[in-house]
């Protein structure tokens, strides 16, 4: 009887092992055949999604594209961290916070600077006339987003410490509501939310990023996906670059296309479109150094728990890897 029971147990374990192996194989096959992209309400990925050229190109490689929208960069990178997406785009700061939290990500490419597409805003009737007057005031921002660094640098420029203000951490929709109610004194925000507030609420700009920050947009991928599918990543960046070039050549057409996707007027959308940087490129030493400075700044402020090495999380395109290997 014991022998029969033992045999049954061994058979059950064998079946379970086979089932587990099949499940793992199926999951691997699915990851090989699907590219999951995270995007935000605005940016080149929105244009790429609308164009549909990526889907056509990757279909030739047997890869399906799935899109997921996120309210901001920190939320998108959390999606990368937990494995719900493979690729996405954010501003400068979210990758720093994500790397500090242990996310296994790689910087893939970046867009040219767009320093005017983020700003510190105040209400049209606010008595505040300068960043220096934010001392002791409540300032709304999305923690860990691109505007977080803008705020730090603007305060520094004005002779203030980060501890001199009261940061109120809110995602864009909640921050706008608080801004409209007057429950915060200022709002640090990016386009198209910035353009919408300027036009709809007549919000005033205390400081944008001009001559202060680059406000690069970064394309990032999970390390496993980028390493296992370099040709897919390369094709994706080529398509992003092509859409960017089209956008630079005809911003009016982009405005027509994007306005209904954003649910904003053409006037507001046109402002945001013209302030954006276009022309995705793989990372240069200069951009890596600039990003390292941001990471060092947040480490010094104790807003992240440790120092980081940005160079350790830079993806190398296949062509560049071949050249390096040959040398």
Automatic annotation (TrEMBL):
One Gene Ontology cellular component: periplasmic space
Source species, domain of life: Bacteria
GO molecular function, one term: ATPase-coupled transmembrane transporter activity
Main subcellular location: periplasm
Subcellular location, record wording: Periplasm
Annotated keywords: Signal, Transport
Statement: the UniProt record of this protein carries the keyword Signal: yes
InterPro entries: ABC_SsuA_sub-bd, Solute-binding_3/MltF_N, SsuA/THI5
Presence of keyword Amino-acid biosynthesis: no
Pfam families (UniProt xref): NMT1
Chain ranges of the Solute-binding protein family 3/N-terminal domain: 34-246
SMART domains named among the record's database cross-references: PBPb
Summary of the function given for this chain in its UniProt record: Part of a binding-protein-dependent transport system for aliphatic sulfonates. Putative binding protein.
Official protein name in the record: Putative aliphatic sulfonates-binding protein
């Amino acid at each position: 009887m014991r022998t029969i029971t033992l045999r049954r147990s061994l058979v059950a374990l064998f079946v379970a092992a086979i089932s587990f192996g099949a499940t793992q194989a199926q999951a691997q096959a699915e990851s090989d055949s699907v590219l999951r992209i995270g995007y935000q309400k605005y940016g080149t990925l929105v244009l790429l999604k609308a164009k549909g050229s990526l889907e056509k190109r990757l279909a030739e490689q047997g890869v399906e594209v799935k899109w997921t929208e996120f309210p901001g960069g920190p939320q998108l990178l959390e999606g990368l961290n937990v494995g719900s997406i493979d690729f996405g785009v954010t501003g400068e700061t979210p990758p720093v916070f994500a790397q500090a939290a242990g996310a296994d990500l790689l910087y893939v490419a970046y867009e040219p600077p767009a320093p005017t597409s983020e700003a510190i805003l105040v209400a049209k009737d606010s008595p505040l006339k300068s960043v220096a007057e934010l001392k002791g005031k409540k300032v709304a921002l999305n923690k860990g987003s691109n505007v977080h660094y803008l705020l730090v640098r603007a305060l520094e420029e004005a002779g203030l410490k980060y501890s001199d203000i009261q940061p109120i951490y809110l995602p864009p929709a909640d921050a706008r509501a608080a801004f409209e109610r007057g429950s915060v004194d200022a709002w640090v925000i990016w386009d198209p939310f910035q353009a919408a507030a300027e036009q709809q609420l007549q919000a005033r700009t205390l400081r944008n990023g001009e001559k202060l920050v680059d406000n690069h947009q970064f394309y990032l991928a999970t390390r496993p996906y980028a390493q296992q599918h370099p040709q897919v990543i390369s094709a994706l960046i080529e398509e992003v670059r092509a859409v960017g070039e089209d956008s630079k050549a005809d911003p009016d057409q982009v405005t027509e296309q994007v306005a209904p996707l954003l649910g904003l007027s053409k006037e507001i959308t046109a402002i945001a479109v013209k302030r954006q940087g276009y022309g995705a490129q793989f990372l240069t030493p200069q951009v890596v150094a600039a990003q390292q400075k941001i990471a060092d700044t947040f480490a010094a402020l104790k807003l992240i728990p440790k120092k980081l090495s940005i160079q350790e999380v830079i993806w190398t395109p296949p062509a560049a890897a071949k050249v390096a290997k040959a040398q």
